[in-house]
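Listing S7. Sequence submitted for prediction.
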Amino acid sequence: MDPKLIFKHAYQVAILDEATMKKVAADKEGLPAALLVVGIASLATALGRVLFPMNMGMIVYRPDWMSTLGLAITSFFMTLLTLFVVGVLAQQVFKSKLSPRSFVQVMGMGQVVGILTLIPALSFVSCLWLVVIFFFTLRRLDQLSWGSIVLLIVLTVMVMAVLAAVLDLMGFSPLYGSALPWN
């Protein structure tokens, strides 16, 4: 894995270079590179919370290092899980052109914009651009219709809500924060 090439591809995915996105999707050995980019983006998010603590009135919240590590690990796994669920649903329900692995590789490389979350004020920009990459990937590479993309999002939210409820009932909510209204 050449780091320079990985970040060149990640940058090109982030600027919506369709040729590079197809190349990344077709790369049979591209998953480790995508995992690396997702890991770096997850670390940036966690470190941003330490470097720039949250202020709520007179209260300042700065997570300790164990909480920061937990946030990075949770962010990493939840990102990958969500991308995999979207990839599987796109392929199985909507007959998309990309395999779940290819979808994870492309969107994983697109997570390079997550480095912006090192500065929490830029989290919105990062999130917004990830949505653009998401729609571009589904529309151009997966060749899904707009209606299919909307249904895919609804199905993904439902699957992830069920997964969150199951994890919560199993007692794992401290790992990701509770997603259920009764907690």
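Caption to Listing S7: primary sequence and predicted structure tokens for the chain studied. The first strand starts at residue 54 and ends at 56. Strands lie at 54-56, 59-61.
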